[in-house]
Write a structure and sequence with these properties.
By secondary structure, the protein is an alpha+beta fold. It is 35% helix and 29% strand. The strands form 2 sheets. It has a 7-stranded antiparallel sheet with strand order 1-3-4-11-6-9-12. Strands 2-5-10-7-8 form a 5-stranded antiparallel sheet.
Length: 230
């Protein structure tokens, strides 16, 4: 395992899964309900490290590949996928356009995305129920007619904002037990959806009523978890 890959994967939490083949990666994602067809590009030992956390609000994923790969990824039925590609030195394309480190991919249920990486690559992602996404979007982006696209969309964004989203997701992955009432994850979802709505209405996230919406959404999430605790 190269030192460059070790550094690239170092932001994953210690509790991670290691795959030695693309087939192992596919099988595990299939058990999580995600259709993911992965192919190694070129020769050499294959390694993928991945962290997964399932929660009542959303399922969180982060993976790092040590070699160039191609992938067909589809959101589970009734779920929406939000994904940020990661690259270290190589290039990554989604839907045929450069997408690493600077775009948010929104994958509606029933849709997919073709991803290709020319070197070290991976992603930070989450899936959440479409109904929950729509309810949150209605609160966070009331002036936006279609926050959820009909087809997979790659949305250009500020790299700093995307880095904050990635850091928040990785924190939730690494410390699932520190947020038993899901406030942190609820805030992350609210911030992501508010940001995702920005390119369509020209309003920057800081101008949205995210604070009040976060509090409302977090409260609703807490009530749901408490009701379903049994």
């Amino acid at each position: 395992m190269s030192s460059s890959y070790t550094a690239f994967a170092s932001d994953l939490p210690p509790d991670r899964i290691v795959f030695r083949s693309a087939e192992e990666n596919e099988e595990t994602m299939g058990r999580c309900g995600v259709t993911q067809e992965t192919r190694q590009v070129g020769k050499g030992p294959f390694r993928c490290e991945m962290a997964v956390t399932m929660t009542p609000l959303a399922d969180l994923y982060a993976d790092r590949f040590n070699r160039a790969f191609s992938m067909r990824l589809e959101s589970p039925p009734g779920m929406v996928g939000l994904l940020v590609l990661r690259s270290a030195g190589g290039s990554m394309r989604a839907c045929g356009v450069p997408a690493a480190n600077e775009r948010l991919l929104v994958i509606p249920d029933g849709c997919g995305v073709d991803i290709a990486s020319s070197g070290l690559g991976g992603s930070d992602a989450l899936t959440m129920p479409k109904a929950r996404f729509a309810a949150m979007a209605e609160v966070l982006c009331p002036t936006t007619d279609a926050v959820l696209p009909e087809q997979t969309a790659t949305i250009q964004g500020d790299t700093g904002e995307l880095q904050a989203l990635r850091n928040g997701l990785l924190h939730c992955l690494a410390h699932p037990d520190r947020d038993p009432r899901q406030e942190g994850l609820s805030n992350l979802l609210a911030t992501t959806i508010a940001w995702e709505g920005t390119p369509r209405d020209g309003v920057r996230p800081e101008r949205l009523s995210v604070g009040a919406a976060r509090a409302r959404i977090a409260k609703l999430a807490q009530e749901h978890i408490e009701e379903e605790a049994a």
